[in-house]
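In response to reviewer comment 3 from the previous cycle, which asked for concrete evidence that the modeling workflow produces usable outputs, we include below a single protein chain processed end to end. The sequence was submitted unchanged, and the resulting structure tokens are shown without manual editing.
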Amino acid sequence: MKKLFLIALFLISFNNYAQGSEYELEVKGAVLTKKDGTQIAIEDGFMEISYLSFKVHFRDSNDKKKAVTITDIDNIKTSEYFFKTFKLERRENIYLVLADSNDKKMVTRKGRFSQDLGYEIFIVDSNGVIIDALKSHGGPFVKGYVHRSFIAPFIKKYFPDCQELIDRIPNTITDKVDGYPLLDYPIYVKCN
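The workflow returned the following structure tokens.
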């Protein structure tokens, strides 16, 4: 029984570690819109998304520390980024919208996966229903994840006419480079 408990504890710890607990991003000109329509101006600086506390932490325009529960947020717009909440898997969560067209969006989030960055990319329709998904990291094979080299063809398949997005895809990806530049700096692109 003791061994079973230790195995369960290890698996829970590994799962939390694999998903990453924090995501910090420098923002400028950000406005958080809650689902009830309330808008909060975010002070220029760092905003943190905590997947453990399920909150977004920031300083408001009066330089006071604030935290808003992710499920209360509709979206966050900044000068470069666009965050939106979606219920894509088991629960509602906040994602970065990387590209947006008339009929679909590409949304993403990243986290630590062992010693490498892992990425989740979803193509969703205008109702937030998943059309396709890709989970990727740069390390050896792990069930359910593909190598980062699969990201570019995936993006080109769903956004072939979005030149601004295509131009940001790196030419080469090696295992010696940690991360994926397009997803590490997920600047929002409005496609035609």
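The radius of gyration is 17 Å. We consider this sufficient to address the reviewer's concern, and the full set will be provided in the supplementary archive.
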